[in-house]
Write a structure and sequence with these properties.
The complex is a heterotrimer of chains A (about 250), B (about 650) and C (about 400). Chain A has a domain of about 170 residues: Rossmann fold (3-Layer(aba) Sandwich). Chain A is about 35% helix and about 25% strand. Chain A has ten helices and ten strands. The longest helix of chain A has 14 residues. With about 650 residues, chain B is α+β, with helices and mostly antiparallel strands. Chain B folds into four domains: about 120 residues, no CATH class; about 80 residues, no CATH class; about 110 residues, no CATH class; about 220 residues, no CATH class. Helix content of chain B is about 60%, strand content about 10%. Chain B contains 27 helices and twelve strands. The radius of gyration of chain B is 38 Å and the shape is extended. Chain C contains 15 helices and four strands. In chain C, strands 1-2 form a two-stranded antiparallel sheet. Chain C has a two-stranded antiparallel ribbon with strand order 3-4. Chain C is globular, with a radius of gyration of 23 Å. In chain C, about 55% of the residues are buried. Classes of the chains: A alpha/beta (about 250), B alpha+beta (about 650), C mainly alpha (about 400). Chains in contact: A-C, B-C.
């Protein structure tokens, strides 16, 4: 299995506080990975670094077959390279319809001239339709995203991510604030998505991680503490000390 | 009659002995009787010189009398007397030498001497030597000042002579200094002049430079060969940057060394005066709409001998090449000019240093004005993040409060003391009202806050216009703030600017005290950093926001009083400060009083620096400053002193 | 696409119909072409108002849709006016100069003509030479190109600097305001090359046109209406498509758009520059009707008024911007022109010339507080659209995001 993303020796300091400390991380092209860790372990900063929001003080972030360094690329360029990110809070464009939201996210050319002269093709409409079905919002295509329930917004955002057709999906606490049924649907979505691409899920909820049934990386104080199956890491003494055994 | 006789005798004596000192003034006057009576500026000089150099004590009175048009000549014998109007048309005459009254005469028997202004000036110069030793100090001082205004070579000797006996220490020093300056300009001995020049080296006085500068004035000349008898400053190369070919040729024309150019206008005039039957030099008039055709027609005219020939570029070059061009000093002595150049250079260096100091003081004072205008904003915008476009109007209201207070309290010192708390109270109340009524509904909406406060701003401006009218209202500073603190001839700073600087520093201290040492400051910081958390700690965020905003507005009001003291108080006073104030806060770094200070310092120094480079144009200075700020923000988007982390609003 | 665009936006058709009807009725009622009910000066006022509506559309595009509160668009408006003014002034002076030089015995050379024009134009600022920036003023074509090129370029450079360093929100507003101030101050200088505070004048006289102002004013009314119609359609087309979707996304949540892979800076720059060009065209049509342009027109306050119009009309909807600009500017003309009747309170008489600004300021505060959807909100009452109940939350985290009251279900 080829490595899609390789993060090595990355460190970030905020006002003297080391948020990420010599972190290394790898993920393959088709893989589902859960990242867990206590509050302040650096989970969100880790995502910020990969998506270009935060520049690390040192270390490398290498992407894809051509081993492109992601450091120094803008957020938009990184997104175009094939990394999608879902925020902790559902962030969709609330003033726009579900259809518009999905259409905007659809994998197309992102240049402003292309966009201004963009015409909706039947192909694109079909894709939007399919995605809506997948995330369970096909009845709500013409509704404004702001009117959706919390869970629906989460799905819409996942749908938008899928529309981007990213090769790597970063998902930040997707299950927060969801009902059990909604969680189940979310799990299915993620597992299904991970069949064709790499998905990294940052999550707090052990039950949710267990259901994902994948390899787990435990972050602590900005570095990877342990890695392996959930059972493997939960039996690790270090992990128990810092996280589970609290 | 006896007197007449005696006078006649006196003349005789004077002629015989040629010793005026024993005899008195009248013989000297009689010697020059003709030219004195003629009263012409061109010829009078020997008479005045003779009187002045007679050394007679009565000469001073006589000259003063003359200058005051009170000297009369008796027609019968041509003798001169001081005259005083008696009864009717008669005049009482007094002898200059004896001081005795000679008698009373009818006006018809006398001739009044009316020296014109030119002669009076010469008399004045002659009088100076008497005045320099006058027992009255004020007169001596006046004499010195008159020499300063109008230095002359003739004054050098009397001035020197008067130094030794000068009893007043201060005047003695002044006389010495003036003597040095006159020596530089007028002494006949070159070594003495050089010595005097070297002595004043490094003196910053304007008078020193005024004495030295004429020595190094140069003028440009052209000649076939370099003259040897002139004090040549520099030889110029025609066609260089210092002297373009055109200028060189102009010099030749001015020196009658070459014929003047024929300009395009000359050609046109020549052509239009030589139109014969609709054409000039066989070229139809209608075709003369290009320079080439005109030159052809002109050449044809020149060939016919009707106009001087056109001087071509090649001719000009040849003429320029055939001559040398140089600059000469007006001063003939090379030693003196050299010493003067050297000394001036040293003085310029020192003046430059002092100007830098002066500029620095100016910049500090401008910076304190900006700081004063911006400090309220540093609280409302910097700390609270509320953008208040009406901030300028609070400044304006403060200034108008000062004006109103002065209408009731005529004493300026007292009225300012009353106006400052009044202005604070008025704008504090206004700020609190604004915060309660408008701003608190818009805390999460900075752009809307901007627009809403702008609405308040235009309403307040128009209200002020309706109440106080459009003309500027005076806010007069107390008398003790008039004048300036003068360090030397270059460096001076007005007291009002010092006062503003002090006020700015007081505000800085006050701000730091409130923020760091008081309960209000603590709550303020808590509320701005995390209003929810602050609320759950028992702080009432609404109350704190209200007070903070009121405090910022109140300080703007006090700044208004200070600004009103030197600026015109009009309804759009605030407009002049609002953009600069925002720039100050933004450039300095939001949320930090030191940032506002640094921002004000940078903008003040920058503006003064640009003004110094282009002194004629303060508008351009502001333009370039804003462009600089826009570019500056590229490199430090968060300002000079940037907060990091959560407080910066990431 | 075009058909579906109109089909999707019936309001555009309505707008165009109203605009045509308006233009037609003014023409019929004018002195130049019709019965003469409307005076020529009022025709000019209406023509100018159409230009103001056009710049309001541009402002709505950049603020209402993209969330950039630019306080600099009147600078571009003024620059456009200066660009056309340069040609108008040059050409008109040239005709006069050629006429007077024709009286001379010898026909003038071209250099003499240019010198004479320069003396005429710049005598007032004590110069008699054309500055470099007038290099193209002899050519209408080049100067017409400059109308969009100069403001466009300025907007491009400024925007690039500002957006590149991610200056957003009020900071950007202050920065654009500073830019406007710098430009106005620069133009106030006599050696700016644009006649300092005298500005350019006599612009109402079209060179070589001998027709009376009655007719010329109608020509300009038509041109302004055409420009407004085209500008409105362009803006409507832009905001209706995916581009509109992206820029509204930028308004409400810039970071999210970035993570979708759109380079926000480029989009902002495109909108900023495009609207600057629209503003410049509006200015180029406005100032020949006003007859004079001077740096005073470009003072920062003018751009804030522009924001006021759009806000009162209702931002985020194009017809709102047009209504706001037309309503407020015409009302302002009415009040400040002394036509509004004074109100006597017995002890004090309210003269509207003095109190209009106060009224406007207070109204504006009230609109911002209580009716952020502006006059456009009245249409919502009519079409029975309601605001979503978002418990006071805005539609996005950004400074320019829509407010609860502005959003519609």
């Amino acid at each position: 299995m080829n490595t899609l993303l390789e993060v090595s020796g990355v460190s970030v300091t905020f006002d003297g506080f080391r948020a990420i400390n010599n972190l290394s991380f790898q993920i393959g092209e088709v893989e589902l990975r859960a990242v867990i860790g206590p509050n302040g372990a650096g989970k969100t900063t880790f995502m910020d670094i990969i998506t270009g929001k935060t520049r690390p003080d040192e270390g490398r972030v290498i992407w894809g077959e051509k081993s492109v360094s992601l450091l120094g690329l803008s957020e938009a360029k990184i997104a175009q390279a094939g990394i999608g990110r879902k925020f902790q809070k559902p962030t969709v464009f609330e003033d726009q319809t579900v259809h518009e939201n999905l259409l905007m996210a659809l994998q197309n050319k992102r240049g402003w001239l292309h966009v201004i002269f963009y015409r909706t093709t039947t192909d694109d409409l079909q894709k939007v339709e399919d995605l809506a079905v997948e995330i369970g919002l096909h009845h709500d295509l013409s509704r404004k995203a702001g009117e959706l329930s919390h869970g629906q917004k989460q799905w819409l955002e996942i749908g938008m991510l899928l529309a981007q057709e990213p090769r790597l999906l970063l998902v930040d606490e997707p299950a927060a604030g969801m009902t059990p049924q909604e969680r189940e649907h979310t799990t299915d979505l993620l597992v299904h998505a991970a069949k064709t691409r790499a998905v990294v899920v940052v999550e707090h909820d052990m039950e949710f991680v267990r259901r994902l049934n994948c390899k787990v990386t435990v972050l602590h104080e900005g570095s990877a503490l342990a890695e392996g199956s959930l059972d493997h890491v939960t039996s690790n003494q270090d992990v128990i000390d810092v996280y589970l055994g609290r | 009659m006896v007197r007449l006789f005696l006078a006649g005798l006196a003349i005789l004596c004077a002629c015989l002995t040629a010793n005026a000192q024993e005899v008195g003034l009248q013989p000297i006057l009689q010697e020059h009787q003709e030219i004195i009576a003629k009263s012409s500026r061109k010829t009078i000089k020997p008479a005045i010189d003779a009187i002045a150099s007679s050394g007679l004590p009565q000469a001073q009175v006589m000259l003063e009398t003359w200058a005051a048009k009170n000297m009369w000549m008796r027609k019968s014998d041509g003798l001169f007397f001081a005259g005083q109007k008696g009864e009717g048309r008669s005049y009482e005459l007094t002898d200059f030498d004896t001081g005795e009254i000679v008698g009373t005469f009818e006006k018809s028997e006398l001739k009044q001497l009316k020296p014109n202004s030119g002669i009076r000036a010469m008399i004045g110069t002659a009088l100076v030597q008497f005045q320099l030793t006058d027992p009255n100090r004020a007169k001596r001082l006046a004499a010195l000042q008159s020499i300063q205004r109008d230095p002359e070579s003739a004054l050098l000797e009397p001035l020197r002579a008067s130094i030794g006996d000068e009893p007043d220490v201060e005047l003695k020093a002044q006389k010495r200094r003036l003597e040095r300056l006159l020596t530089i300009g007028f002494d006949e001995d070159t070594t003495a002049r050089v010595a005097a020049i070297e002595e004043v080296s490094g003196d910053l006085g304007v008078d020193v430079r005024a004495a030295l500068n004429p020595l190094v004035v140069t003028s440009r000349h052209a000649a076939l060969e370099l003259p040897t008898d002139l004090n040549v400053a520099v030889i110029l190369e025609a066609g260089s940057e210092a002297l373009t070919s055109d200028e060189a040729y102009d010099l030749l024309v001015a020196g009658n060394l070459a014929p003047p150019r024929v300009s395009a206008v000359d050609i046109r005039v020549a052509l239009s005066t030589n139109i014969v039957g609709g054409s000039v030099g066989d070229i139809p008039v209608a075709q003369l709409s290009s320079d080439a055709m005109r030159e052809r027609a002109y050449a044809a005219l020149a060939e016919a001998g009707l106009v001087p020939a056109l001087f071509t570029d090649a001719d000009i070059d040849a003429a320029v090449n055939a001559h040398v061009f140089f600059e000469t000093y007006g001063e003939p002595s090379a030693e003196v000019t050299e010493a003067a150049e050297k000394t001036l250079e040293q003085i310029e260096l020192k003046v430059g240093l002092n100007q830098t100091l002066d500029l620095t003081l100016d910049a500090i004072s401008l910076a304190s004005i900006y700081f004063l205008a911006a400090i309220g904003l540093a609280i409302t915008f910097g700390v609270m993040g509320v953008i208040n476009m009406a901030h300028g109007e609070f400044i304006m209201m403060g200034a108008y409060t000062g004006y109103v207070v002065q209408q009731f309290i005529p004493d300026h010192t007292l009225s300012i003391i009353v106006a400052i708390p009044m202005a604070f109270a008025v704008t504090f109340a206004m700020g609190v009202a604004m915060e309660r009524l408008v701003i608190r509904w818009l805390y999460a909406r900075p752009l809307e806050t901007l627009l809403a406060t702008f609405g308040i701003s235009i309403a307040l401006q128009q209200l002020a216009k309706n109440i106080f009218g459009t003309q500027a209202r005076p806010l007069t500073a107390p008398g003790w703030l008039d004048g300036a603190w003068v360090l030397n001839d270059v460096v001076a700073i007005s007291y009002i600017r010092i006062a503003i600087f002090v006020l700015a520093m007081i505000f800085l201290g006050l701000f730091l005290y409130i923020m760091k040492r008081t309960r209000l400051g603590l709550e303020m910081r808590a509320v701005t950093q995390n209003p929810r958390m602050a609320g759950s700690m028992g702080i009432n965020p609404g109350r704190v926001n209200m007070l903070t905003f009121g405090l910022g507005s109140g300080i703007a009001g006090i700044a208004g009083v200070a600004i009103g003291l030197f600026a015109k108080v009009t309804s759009d006073l605030g407009n002049d400060y609002i953009v600069q104030s925002f720039m100050t806060v933004v450039v300095g770094g939001v949320g930090n009083i030191w940032g506002a200070l640094a921002g004000a310092g940078m903008i003040g120094f920058l503006q003064k620096g640009i003004e110094w480079m282009n002194p004629s144009n303060t508008l351009a200075a502001q333009t370039y400053m804003i462009i600089f700020i826009i570019i500056f923000i590229q490199f430090r988007p968060r300002g000079i002193i940037a907060l990091r982390g959560r407080a910066a609003g990431d | 696409m075009e058909r579906s665009f109109i089909a999707k936006n019936p309001s555009v058709l309505v707008f165009l119909a109203i605009l045509s009807l308006f233009t037609l009725s003014v023409t019929i009622l004018s002195e130049g072409f019709g019965v003469g009910v409307i005076s020529t000066s009022f025709v000019k006022t209406l023509g100018k108002t159409l230009c103001l509506c056009l710049i309001a559309v541009a402002m709505d595009l950049v603020w209402g849709f993209t969330g950039i509160l630019s306080l600099g668009h009147f600078a571009f408006f003024g620059l456009g006016g200066y660009m056309i003014g340069m040609w108008l002034m040059y050409e008109r002076t040239r005709l006069i100069v050629v006429d007077s030089l024709a009286q001379a015995e010898i026909p003038p050379t071209s250099a003499e003509v240019v010198d004479a024009i320069a003396t005429q134009v710049f005598g007032v600022v004590g110069s008699s030479e054309f500055p470099l920036i007038w290099a193209f003023s002899h050519s209408l074509t080049l100067q017409l190109i400059l109308i969009v090129l100069v403001p466009g370029l300025l907007a491009l450079i400024f925007g690039w600097l500002a957006f590149r360093s991610r200056v957003t929100g009020v900071y950007l507003s202050i920065l654009t305001q500073a830019m406007t101030l710098a430009l106005a101050l620069y133009l106030f200088q006599n050696d700016s090359g644009l006649r300092g505070n005298n500005g350019l004048s006599g612009l109402q006289n079209l060179p070589g046109v001998t027709t009376s102002q009655d007719v010329v004013s109608i020509w300009f009314l038509w041109a302004s209406a055409l420009a407004l119609g085209l500008g409105y359609m362009l803006a409507a087309w832009i905001v209706s498509g995916k581009f509109g979707s992206v820029i509204r996304g930028i308004r409400d949540n810039e970071a999210r758009v970035r993570f979708l892979g759109y380079s926000v800076e480029v989009y902002k720059l495109a909108v900023f520059t495009l609207t600057a060009c629209i503003a410049a065209i509006a200015g180029a049509l406005y100032y020949p009707q006003a007859g004079i342009i001077n740096p005073e027109e470009m003072a920062p306050i003018a751009s804030i008024y522009l924001a006021v119009w759009v806000a009162i009309g209702g931002r985020g909807r194009l017809y709102g911007a047009v209504i706001g600009a037309a309503f407020v500017s015409l009302l302002s003309t009415w009040f400040t022109g002394g036509q509004a009747p004074d109100i006597s309170l017995g002890f004090y008489t309210i003269k509207w010339v003095d109190w209009w600004q106060v009224l406007l300021g207070v109204t504006f505060v009230l609109v911002t507080l209580f009716a952020p959807q502006g006059i456009g909100g009245l249409f919502d009452l009519w079409t029975d659209r309601r605001h979503p109940d978002r418990h006071g939350a805005n539609l996005g985290p950004d400074d320019g995001a829509l407010r609860e009251k502005e959003a519609m279900e």
